[in-house]
Specification:
It is built from six helices and 20 strands. By secondary structure, it is an alpha/beta fold. It has two domains: about 80 residues, no CATH class; about 270 residues, Alpha-Beta Horseshoe (Leucine-rich repeat, LRR (right-handed beta-alpha superhelix)), CATH 3.80.10.10. It holds the Pfam family LRR_8.
Length: about 375
Amino acid sequence: IIPLHHPSLPIRVSYLKKEKAKRNENNWRRKKRKIGKLVNPISSLILAAVCSRDLLPKRAATLSPTTMARRSLSANLLLFLFTFALFHTHALSKTLKRDVKALNEIKSSLGWRVVYAWVGDDPCGGDGLQPWSGVTCSTQGDYRVVTELEVYAVSIVGPFPTAVTNLLDLTRLDFHNNKLTGPIPPQIGRLKRLKILNLRWNKLQDSIPPEIGELKSLTHLYLSFNNFKGEIPRELANLPELRYLYLQENRFVGRIPAELGTLQNLRHLDVGNNHLVGTIRELIRIEGCFPALRNLYLNNNYLTGGVPAQLANLTNLEILHLSSNKMTGVIPVGLAHIPKLTYLYIEGSSFKPGVNPIGMHKVFEVSDADFVV
């Protein structure tokens, strides 16, 4: 124990002050290193000045009013500069070179209508220019990336631009109502973040590539009104988030994959106006299939057999379109008791007289077969 009057006391106090100052300095250096990882170098420098010990408030008794006002003004000015630097850096972020290259390749392949609308060197805009028409971008770190590409109803002609598959951050791709030809490239499977793919009303051909089953985030798939042929790929059943599947008005052959029934979120399935064969019984053979399905369009194909009673297990059905097939048999009684079924179309087939579900549904269209009430 050192008495208060001991001659070594000033030395001891001085030593403790130095140790405290050293600890504060080490703590500040650690904080500055963390700050440098969070913001860009310019912002880090400004923030360092703001947090500097020279600007931190000391005991009020040791500062004159003029000094306090001056330091308060300096702190506010540096805080403003720090905020400005953050926004300025955000505004100056450049579009990822990969996306710029891909869009320029698309631009050169899609014709004069796109060339006329896409002006400037940066697809995401900048230097007083707006983003290219139909291009939506978002900021990721120090760069901007293309997340949506919508070029529809402008009569673009030619093959599907493969360069699109280099836009790896796309969530929406919309080329509907154009004159695109050829197949969908297998590289389409690279777009892992894609949620909406709309290619309807084009002249696309050949089979749908199985790689489309790699788009695990896909919720909407519109491929109707094209010239696709071959079988409907079973790989579509690998899309767990799929809700809307439009495949009508193509040249698909073979059977509808029963595996589609395992899609837990599928609400709308339209395969009408194709060359499909098989039976409805084969389509719904998997127990618990199509739990969320609301609209089922099987019309204008070559389906045979009858309407199975198990169809009544699709309790969320609101629209059922079976017209213009080669089905026969009796309409099952259970069909009239699907609670949400509002529209039922069964004309154009050779059903035998049976129970008439009319009255249970708002719209009911049948062939000239006789039904008993």
